[in-house]
Amino acid sequence: MTHLGGFGDDPDNGPDGDAKAVALEIADAVDGLTDLWLLAAQEAPLRLSLQQLRALRVVAAEPGLNLTTLAERLDMGPPTASRLCDRLEAAGLLERVLHPLKRREVQLSLAAQGRQVLDEVAGRRAQGLAEVLGAMEADDRAALRRGMRAFRAVRDAGVPHPHGPDRT
């Protein structure tokens, strides 16, 4: 749990709280959401690590990408990404084919079983989230939806990340 006490713990700091207090509450909620995500992945018939699922999601989003690009997206070295792809290919989830124009480059794509696994995990995640949202009051769900839309709008507008370069 993220809520560690200290700044922002005072419930009397206004109807909406300050940004730090709200951030702590959201971080707690994200921890709960992460638990739902992990459970959905663990319940899949083919057990994959989170890193393997991330790799499949990246390849699904960018079919035909090469190993170097995958390694960059996953923030790992190419040898580690290559071993990860070896395991995914051996499991029948990933396919590697030679690039038609660049003979030394390999393109990555999802195998049919890889797509099926991603779809199944996504379905389990959506079901778990729907169960939690279904237990909420309609007004609370609507408020959450508005808040998430506002959050995405501000994030997408290019608010600089506090611990890294401007992502705009």
Mean pLDDT over all positions: 84
Q: Output the number of helix runs.
A: 6
Measure the end-to-end span: 31 Å
The whole-angstrom Rg is: 20 Å
Number of domains: 1
In CATH, the architecture is: Orthogonal Bundle
Spatial ordering of strands, largest sheet: 1-2
Short description:
The protein is mainly α and 168 residues long.
Tell me what the structure shows.
There is one protein chain. The chain is mainly alpha-helical and 168 residues long. The protein has one domain: Arc Repressor Mutant, subunit A (Orthogonal Bundle), CATH 1.10.10.10. It has helices at residues 19-42, 50-61, 67-74, 78-90, 112-134, 138-156, and strands at residues 94-98, 106-110. The chain has a two-stranded antiparallel ribbon. A hairpin with a 7-residue loop joins β1 (94-98) and β2. α3 crosses α4. The longest helix has 24 residues, at 19-42. The chain is globular and about 55 Å long. The two termini are 31 Å apart. Mean pLDDT is 84; it is low at 1-12.
Relevant terms:
mainly alpha; Arc Repressor Mutant, subunit A; 6 helices; 168 residues; two-stranded antiparallel ribbon; 2 strands
List the helices and strands and how they pair.
Elements: H1 19-42, H2 50-61, H3 67-74, H4 78-90, E1 94-98, E2 106-110, H5 112-134, H6 138-156
Antiparallel strand pairs: 1-2
Helix pairs in contact: 1-5, 3-4
